[in-house]
Amino acid sequence: MKTPILIAAIFFSGLSFAQQTKKDTVKTKSIEGVTLTKQVFKKQSDRFVYDVAASPIAKGNTTFDILKQTPLLSTTDDKTLKIAGKNNALIYINGRKSNMDAESLVQFLKNTPAENIQKIEVITVPGSEYQVESSDGIINIVLKKKMSDGTSGNMRMSNTQSKYNASNASFSVNYRKDKLGINANLSGGENINPQSYILRNRSENVQNESVGNIDDPNKNLGGYLNIDYQLNEKSNLALSWNTWANKSYNSTIDLMNTITKYDTNGNILSTAYTKTKNKEDARSYNNSVNLNYEVKLDSLGSKLNVNAAYLNYKRFQYTNNNTLIQDAAGNFTQNSSKIIQDLPQVINNFSGTVDYIQKFKNDFTFSAGGNYNKTKTDNDTKNYSYPYDLSGNQLASQNDFNHFVYNENIYGLYVTFEKKFSDKFSGKIGARYEITNSLGTADSWKNNVETNQQIERNYNNLLPYLSFNYAINDKNNISYSFSSRMRRPSFWELNPVKNLITEDNYTQNNPFVKASSTYNQELTYMYKNSYFLILNHTYEKDQITQVPLQRSYIDPKTNQKRVQLAYIRTNFGDKQEMSAMLGIQKSLFKQYLTLNFNAGVQYNINNGTLDTDPTTGQVFDTYVNNRKSASMVITSNNTIRLDKKKTWFLGVNFFYVDKQQIELGMLKNLASLDLNIKKNWNDWTFAVNLNDVLRTNVVEIEDLQASGNYNYIRNDQYRRSINVSITYNFGNQKVKKVRNIESASDEIKNRTR
Fold it and tell me: What average pLDDT does range 170-175 have in this prediction?
């Protein structure tokens, strides 16, 4: 993933209501047919339940379409999903975390018929039995159960026109015969991800502005194969393989840089120009295999589940970064500097999980289990710097090599007790205990001088969980949940590599980043299973984020003052988020209108200070973010049935996120109006989607420090687009899908992105 894209990604980290999926991720499987009759949305124990089989909008839609219509869920980019008030949403299928890459998962969700879904469960505060981090929530898709043998599947083709054209296609098939079930998918596509940037920062009397475009071509191919065999009436054995490959060659950054100097009265003294032209070739491969054994212990649902998994992730990235200055004719043909970077990363992980669930006749459930993860990442970074004199002559190269190897072992145990005391009252209590032992070794060579460094992190964490649900009567329900979680840094965040944007603008990762701790509380009131109020509080200690640090310095080549801006990955103080949201999920006018509306307020409290890059020791001007902000959030997803036969549907979706303070500064308001029309014809579905019709989904961040330092970012990812899709379902739609298995390596896979 490219450096500017990494910066863009964190813009959305502060949006507690706007939708985003994983970015992190997960995997999934196929789904089955359903006929829709009634609609139910209610609170059960530790989760919200949306009865898709009762919804009038399911037929002909994809799973992704239905998820966007589910209360508490939303999306800002039509690619990722987010639960209101949560940083990330993990996808589960029938109670098991999916195994797919984020890209593959999106394709799967967009190519799986919604008719296969029985219900969608939104778990805003997961219990101790779930391996989730930070304030992540869970979307559990429960599939309909069919017992017929046979073959079924679907094919889907789509084309999207934004700044560039993109195409995708997928093919899925399910086969069942007696005790054997096979489920497979193949999908791929081509696209160019465009972005435009304005990066403007100022320190003392020097301002640097970079304006231009990034084009990131991508070719993707991936899929999965799942084989499930019933050994006997009580036990099953399953093997799952998932693969995804991405090729991104000739990705370019083209920016015009303007350096302006001012006097003490704000008058311009001088202006200088340079140009940044970077080219990157990258490819990545992600393969995982999981072996699962499950045995049913009794007729009440008690069972033992065991998983063993292996994950291999490879990424090879080669960049050529050039800074050009004007020649005598004023053309940007003369090199000022060139830096070539070779940035490979290889991750190997072995994982295992054991889950034991014992159910008793008095509505009491005891669960216990454990997990083990052993991970090794190998990052052999090579930087070759080629300076030039003022005449454009290349000088001797300066080499900077860093071989960073990171070994991590995680041991986890959990126990939960769940009890239904009466028809009105139920509760759940549990805890996880996690031990993390890690060692990073960095062997560096800079200008032929070798240095060696070791970074050791060992910590133990006890993570309690509590929830209860009380049905006051048949119309009123109240529930409360408390959870504590950790967030470990992603492996790319630990790799101490510097990714260059321009000569004076870069990102710096950090091997010293430690895990952060998150504490979540949530109080929910629901009326008539249609109206709800959610109060949420999240406290994050030692949050992991990027911090914008800048400084002015004297360029030794020209003896002129310049300004440098670096995005430093580190632990940056503490953060609190408080929110209150009112919502309604209801069908009106004899199900001709399905309304899903949420509106709320969010209050952010930031508390962080940084002035030094912990990786390099470079001292910058002090950056302080101790600001508070209150913002409003509105999400409205509406489906209008246009005919009596339920073959034509119109969708009108809108979201608005008010300005709010995040780690990089003040994020200005975001909004998007999306329209779609759909036609169902026998086994075919034709759909046209218009996204970001008003072109209001553009990121802007602005920050002004007390010292006078200023930073402004504008990032446009060209979200306005038109998408046309055709879906065809074939075969016996009652074929029972293969069991969906949670891989033992899922938690680790999330951290590779």
Answer: 86
Compute CA distances 618 → 429, 570, 717, whole Å.
47, 14, 32
**Distance of alpha carbon 250 from alpha carbon 281, whole angstroms:** 6
pLDDT, one tens digit per residue, over 305-320 is 999 999 999 999 999 9
DSSP-derived letter for residue 396 is: -
Q: Could you write out the DSSP letters of every residue in 179-241?
A: TEEEEEEEEEEEEEEEEEEEEEEEETTEEEEEEEEEEEEEEEEEEEEEEEEE-SSSEEEEEEE
Can you give the pLDDT at residue 40?
A: 62
User: Residue 118 corresponds to which tokens in the numbers above?
Assistant: 């029985």
Q: Which amino acid, 173?
A: V
361 three-state secondary structure: coil
Portion of the chain with pLDDT greater than 70, in percent:
87
Residue 687: alpha-carbon gap to chain centroid? 26
Which residue type, as a one-letter code, is found at position 341? Q
Q: In terms of Cα–Cα distance, which of 356, 386, 387, 361 is closest to 371?
A: 356
Q: Indicate whether this model's pTM tops 0.85.
A: no
Euclidean distance between CA atoms 408 and 616, whole angstroms: 23
The tokens for 513 are: 């980043």
C-alpha 230/C-alpha 495 separation (Å) is 43
Neighbours of 300 (CB within 10 A): 13
Whether residue 20 has pLDDT greater than 60: no
Residue with tokens 């390596």: 745
What is the Cα–Cα distance from 272 to 208, expressed in whole angstroms? 10
| Listed residue (159, 6, 168, 141) closest to 81, CA to CA | 141
Enumerate helices (H) and strands (E) in the chain, giving the number of each. Answer: 5, 40
pLDDT at 745 exceeding the cut of 70 = no
The identity of residue 569, as a single letter, is R
Q: What is the pLDDT of residue 753?
A: 53
Residue ranges of E strands in 528-669? 531-541, 544-554, 561-571, 574-588, 593-612, 619-625, 628-641, 648-657, 660-662, 665-667
- Tally of CB atoms within 10 A around 114: 28
The average pLDDT across 586-594 equals 86
For residue 470, which amino acid is it? Y
- Residue 6: φ, ψ to 5°: -65, -40
